[in-house]
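User: Can you fold this complex?
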Amino acid sequence: MQSLGLDVLFKGKNFVRLLGGLWVAVRISLISVAISIALGLIMGMLMAGKNRVLKAMFRVYLEIVRIMPQMVLLFVVYFGTTRVFGWNLSPEASAIIVFSFWGVAEMGDLVRGALVSIPRIQYESAEALGLTTAQVYLYVILPQTFRRLVPLSINLITRMIKTTSLVMMIGIVEVLKVAQQIIEANRRTSPNAAFGVFATVFLLYFLICWPISRLAGYLEKRWA
Amino acid sequence: MDFEAMREYLPLFKDALALTVRIGWQGVLLAFLIGIACAIIQHMRLPVLRTVAAVYIELFRNTPLLVQLFFLYFALPKIGLRISAELCGVLGLGLLGGAYMAETIRSGLESIAPIQSESAQSLGMTGMQAFRYVILPQAVSRSVPGLIANVIFLLKETSVFSTVSLMDLMFTAKDLIGMYAKTMECLTLLVVFYLIMLLPVSVLGSLVERRLRHAEFGP
Amino acid sequence: MENALLEIKDLKKAYGEHVVLDDLSLAVNKGEVVVVIGPSGCGKSTLLRCINALEDIQGGQVLLDGQPVLRQAKNISRTRQKIGMVFQSYDLFPHKTILDNILLAPMKVQKRPRAQAEAEALELLDRVGLADRKDDYPRQLSGGQKQRIAIVRALIMHPEILLLDEITAALDPEMVHEVLQVVLDLAKNGSTMLIVTHEMTFARAIADRVLFLEGGRIVEESADPKAFFARPATERARQFLRTFEY
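Assistant: Here's the predicted assembly.
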């Protein structure tokens, strides 16, 4: 049996390039998660409120996000909106828009769920002490939801990192694309490179996501 | 919008939908089988198998389906395992989904208080009987919302099949955009067809969920 | 006591260093009602769980009809059929109706025909005054009603002895009575029972024999409950009983 292509990995800057591709994927997901958490908190607070029109709109928004594959959304934003509105969106910007669109909905729903799980009496007794609505949330309600939300937000990070593998489809050169390029470039000298390189990408993803989801699981258990 | 072109593309999308649904459901079925097997192995704490199941679950929950598919489709042939694109889709979906299903079922089983099993055993039931008549039915109805979410998640994930040249919805849209540049028409059809595939599942899912809640606790 | 129905010899139960039952011995005769009282953490609930082999034990023996009750034994299911147990938290099966809760064990374990078991279930339900609730789900019942169902669920197996583990501890005061009334009826009909309870008035009324348990040992035992509750012999029991006065 010929070499399984592990040698290709260490030729020139190949491994560094692969890690660079991974960083592209991780960067996109970290930016998207930051946006998702910030906007998701606001979204969730609005949804826990009483405005029926807002609630109905959010239901529709959430349902769209739950049903539409992220890949479809990526295509719609990158190919569709650029054509309709005539603007110029870089692939990265499109990816961040799509991931945030998805993350805000998920985060908003998590925040909403955490907020409504806090007993009514907590709001009432805080208000009875004369706190303003903002103070009620800031000092009484949000701290109580914190322990529940942190593990779930961490989980969202791993889900985003995993989903970033799709962005190669709109032309972003992330780890999978780099892997393909490496395999392509070495087709003649090591025809079996696909095995070693894809196995490495598989492991790289695992090595990033596994510790993060372990952390989330640990916090969830500890703070349950 | 060029409706004439859309009408022309319609049969292609229909074929693609049929393929996506076929592979999707086979994959979901496989996922259920793998998930149930792993959950039972872990619940019964079978030695060795239990570790194998745990490693498998962690590996497949923490990597993207796209990477798993690339590995199955492009890497395995290099060590002599060549499988068709379609089988690759079913297998990939089944392996990914199995890991998620196993976790959902396992947490359903764990959510049933041990005293339920004890009170069943104190009535003279064997461990197996207590599991079958008391623990399992409760665990299943508690897992249903999670299982339905998994099914929707898996059917969505079929969108990556295009990368291993399966002519699914995504592939068809991409192909047509590339050939005729009717971007909006194709994207509209793409969205509509995904809605056709997933909206019924989502609606059916919430109905089943409500029914089960009803059955568990009475009216 | 040669022909005791239940015999416990030098039972030892410990969680690591923490000893819960310390070489405890006890015998219960057929038709006898034995009440175990004592401060929380004294091991009384653990005692019942050990008798039903729900816990591993570290020493000693539990004998029912002279046969050892062993957690790992093949026939443990058959032995448990002879021991009825009712828990503090009732633990009805939430996914089954009241009737199905009661019928599950007789049909699946004893393989009795449904019609026959159902007839008996309805009779028992009638006795505890809940015949009209047979098609309801546990969630629709009050705590006191659920606890009466749990007793019926144990009775239909025709146990030789009933273990009642603080069955009124989780109930609202006004529901305690309806449950204890059922137990008093059982005692009148000659059921053998081992009862752990915090209801002292009830204990005095029902007990043939009272055991005061503390630190995993029987500190005081009395075959005359009236006398025990009026004037306990040991200082520890006196102190314990005083905590029930205001």
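The helical segments of chain B are 3-43, 49-61, 65-75, 85-110, 114-122, 127-157, 169-180, 183-217. Chain B is about 80% helix and 0% strand.
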